[in-house]
Structure formats: structure tokens, C-alpha cells
Amino acid sequence: MNEPVIVVHGGAGDIPDSRDQPKFNGILAAIRKAHTVYKNTSSITDACQAAVECMEDDEAFNAGRGSVLNLKGEIEMEALIMEGKDMKAGSVTGVKNIAHPIALARKVMENTPHVFLMGSSANEFASKMGFETVSDDYLMTIHAKTALNNFLKSGGQPVTTEIGQGVGTVGAIGMDTNGHMVSCTSTGGITGKMAGRVGDTPVPGAGGYCDNNIGTISTTGHGDSIMRYCLAQKIMNRMENGEVPEIAAQKGCDSMSARVGGSAGAIVISKKGEVGIGFSSSKMAWAFLKDGIIHYGIKKGQYLTVAL
Length: 308
Ligand SMILES: NC(=O)C[C@H](N)C(=O)O
Hints:
The chain is an alpha+beta fold. The chain contains 9 helices and 13 strands. The chain has helices at 20-41, 44-56, 101-111, 119-128, 136-139, 142-153, 223-229, 231-240, 245-260, and strands spanning 5-13, 77-83, 89-95, 116-118, 170-175, 181-187, 208-211, 215-221, 264-270, 275-279, 283-290, 293-299, 304-307. Helix 1 packs antiparallel against helix 2 and helix 7 packs across helix 9. Asparagine binds next to strand 1, strand 8 and helix 7.
């Protein structure tokens, strides 16, 4: 393969139409950023991390700036990175006041003997690694505050607001020209979650997975369902058993919804470089780059293209 394959998502769920364009702008910017970084570094890990950081900076998404609020009105963020060569992984959960949880997950992968760090200890590690602290005011958007108010007013039922209950988790997966793969996912979780709630996103096999011998995946959607179903791992199993990524992603999400409820979406690349996009939610923002063309969409059956 002469070109890398890069796929991103900007969250699955009940996304109001008014949010489509900001999400398109964000996912297209993320793909372009990833492409530039890949050209400069030849590192698919750097490229996908950069794509996720680009969306963490963009308040159209529920990750980094724009993260949703827990029941106490706080932001607790989570992220996972996994590389497919040696199946190394790094995760964080319950982190506060940093701009790029995905960068911290990478530090866990590369600078500790562990996979997963949590809460204030993860924040202490961030300080040690030289991460700057950002204020709650920077991370907390009016959309996130409105979403929590609406959630509380409705007696704790999921409400579709401008940003939905938790839509807008972000992910980027990629394969370089040597077949090396990576998976990156970052989120603020779901609006009105209990303080300390851990979602699917930082859990390998649920929020993402990566193995150069099979493929790479990032998921999004109702995390408590995704975690119970081990959605990323289930989709890997389907590909290992010969399903093409498009079918594996869609059937994986549909089977999760049928078995445990909730809805989800997934982006997938197989070891052959084939791309799969699937979601059982009403929408998922996705985009991928292949042969100089960006393909993207958000509604079922929507398939748009634009030059890089
Ligand atoms: N929109 C999302 O993907 C939310 C995330 N999966 C969570 O439940 O924490």
C-alpha cells in the first residue's frame, strides 16, 4: 500500500441536524491534520493522536474541551490508545483539567509499565510528564452545562439537547504503508453520569482495540452497553472469522443493541486496509482518507466526498 489509511469518528447517537455541519467541519479538519502529521513524521501513531487532539480542542465534540458533565457538574475525561505491532496500550480515566487526555494515555503506554491510570493519580502523572493544567472554564462549554440542566430537569432521563446526552466521543484509527496500525479514542463520557463512573472508552476490547494481525477499531455510543458486550473485541472476532470490516462493524453494533440494548457505532480497518463504518444509533459522524479523497457522512446511507 502506497498511502496510509486514516479513519475518524466524532461520536454516535441522536445528533440533532443543527450539529451536523460543526461535526463535519471538525472531522474533516481532523483528517487533514492527521495527513499532514503523517507526511511530516511517517508515524501513524502521531497522525491519529493529532487527529484526536484536533477534535479534543473542538467544542463540537464531547472530548477535551466540550466534554459533558457528571452529576456533580464536573468533567472527568477518559482515553485509550493501542498499537497493533506489540499490542501495547495506554488508558486514563477520571482525569481533570488537561486539554489532551489522548496524549496522557500515550504517555501511560510509553512511559510506565502499566496500561491504565485513574483519577488524581493520572493527573499527578500528567504533571510529572509536563502537561499544562487547563481551567474548568476552558473545558466546560455552555452546551455541556445546558445538557446537564436538561438531564436533571427531566429526572435523569437521557435528553436530546444541542449536544445530546453524550454524543461526540472522538476516535481515530490508522494503518501505515507497512501495515502497522493504531487506535485512539477520547471522551467526556455521558451527561449526568455518576462521579467516578468509568465508561467503555478507556477499556481495551470495549472502546477500542488494535492488532496488526487482524485490524484496528474505535467505538462510540452507550458505554455501559458497549462495555458489557465488549464491542470492539466482538468486531475483531468477526473479522478474524472472515467478515469484511463493513459487515463486521454493522453487525457487531446491531448484535450489541439486540443483546444488551443501547446503541453504538464503530470505525474499523482490516489488516488488508479495507475500511468499515457501522452504527446502530440514528447517526454517527465519520470520515476516512483513501487515495487523496476524503469520504464522510453522518446519516444512514449518506456518503459524501471532498478532495484532501
Ligand atoms: N458518546 C460516547 O461514545 C460516550 C461513551 N461511549 C461513554 O459512554 O462514555
